Amino acid sequence: MPDQVPEPEIYSVSRLNQTVQEHLESGFALLWVEGELSNLARPASGHWYFSLKDAGAQVRCALFRNRAQGVRFRPRDGMQVLARARISLYVPRGDYQLIVEHLEEAGDGALRRSFEALHRKLEAEGLFDTALKRPLPRFPRRVGVITSATGAAVRDILAVLKRRFPALPVMIYPVPVQGSEAAPRIAAALEAASARGDCDVLILARGGGSLEDLWAFNEEIVARAIRTCTIPVVSGIGHETDITIADFAADQRAPTPSVAAELVSPDGRELLQRVNQLERLLSERFSRRLQARSQQLQALEQRLRHQHPERRLRARAQRLDELESRLRQALARRMREQRAELAHLWTRLGRCSPQARITDMAQQRRDLSLRMERAMALRLERLDARVSLQARTLHAVSPLATLGRGYSILLSAEGRAVRAPEQVKSGERLEAHLAQGRLWCRVE
Question: For residue 193, with 0-12 CB atoms within 10 Å meaning exposed, 13-18 middle and 19 or more buried, which class applies?
Answer without folding.
Answer: buried
